[in-house]
Amino acid sequence: EVQLLESGGGLVQPGGSLRLSCVASGFTFSTYAMTWVRQAPGKGLEWVSTLSNSGDNTYYADSVKGRFTISRDNSKNTLYLQMNSLRAEDTALYYCAKDRMGGVWSAIDYWGQGTLVTVSS
Amino acid sequence: DIVMTQSPDSLAVSLGERATINCKSSQSILYSSNNENYLGWYQQKPGQPPKLLIYWASTRESGVPDRFSGSGSGTDFTLTISSLQAEDVAVYYCQQYYRSPPTFGQGTKLEIK
Predict the structure, then answer these.
(1) Could you point out which of B59, B85, B99, B105 has its C-alpha 20 to 30 Å from the C-alpha of B27?
(2) Three-class SS of residue A43?
(3) What is the pLDDT of residues B8-42, one digit of tens each?
(4) First-to-last CA distance in chain B?
């Protein structure tokens, strides 16, 4: 059974930093691209970032480019999202998600339960 | 960016009746080399993460009931629920993964009439 378990969310002041983690199990992690998607309270889905299976290729939404960094440790089956210079508009539930395929781009076939990030003073 | 526009924003359908949700992309998401439309449909129930229903515009994900079907090509797509069940109450999203950034529609809220 595929499982994606996010952690690292919380309350942070504007301008602060957080590092989200996502531990994956139930599939060969190194084979698949991985993605972060966020959902602001009561709003729709917004793609944040995707990382290829090898970690060589990264992609970011314009809204987070230069502030967020996606990475992975295939030896630990873990995906990360380093978030710096956080803004109020980054407040959202952040989902870790597995792409159907190894290369980019494909549909997302598994989602974690999400970790909540709140940016507020 | 490719803009995905869903219609309607909300929909109320009687149990057992057909529900139809439309999704339009601002440019074609049909990849000519493999003749695939790079479109997925997701269902999100309250308090839950999204769930993949359909990929390549019309391929049903494993375990998804066959009352769910996807159709369309190029820029116009449809998700159809042939006979609405109570457990289908949810918000439905389309997503294009043809080009970065992958973009979602704004969502369609499906309720029981």
Answers:
(1) B59
(2) coil
(3) 999 999 999 999 999 999 999 999 999 999 999 99
(4) 36
